[in-house]
Fold this sequence. Notes:
CATH architecture of the domain at 22-123: 2-Layer Sandwich
Number of helices: 7
Radius of gyration: 20 Å
CATH class of the domain at 22-123: Alpha Beta
Helix content: 25-40%
Shape: extended
Strand content: 5-15%
Oligomer: single chain
Amino acid sequence: xxKPNVDDxxxxxxxxxxxxKPAERKRYLGTLRERVxxxxxxxxxxxxxxxxxxxxxxxxxxxAKLLLNGKxxxxxxxxxxxxxxxxxIRHTTVSNQDAETDLGAILxxxxxxxxxxxxxxxxxxSESESxxxxxxxxxxxxxxxxxx
Length: 148
């Protein structure tokens, strides 16, 4: 191991101490993938999806911590904070302006658990449901719908 020199001390002072797996930490709101119990995307958080699954995971892992993405509006984070309070789980809002992630909520622990499936699977919409959608997407799909 090399001996630290003045440049190493300056770099640490400017940028902070070196972290392992920085890309993984940016994606998972500051934690590592091996510590994640359950992950919800921003879209799932905005749709209030996974509240029951999150509550069950909190009951299983009493020492867990809930990380909420600060880029998601407070009104969407509020139900998740409430579930965490009901289960006596600590929660933190992470607002890292440098990191871009599609994740909205992460239930994590302080030790490695190595779960294979951590992402919540949401049922896919059928084609008939998606064509009934309102807005521009539904309108465009209805324009190109075959005539019977």
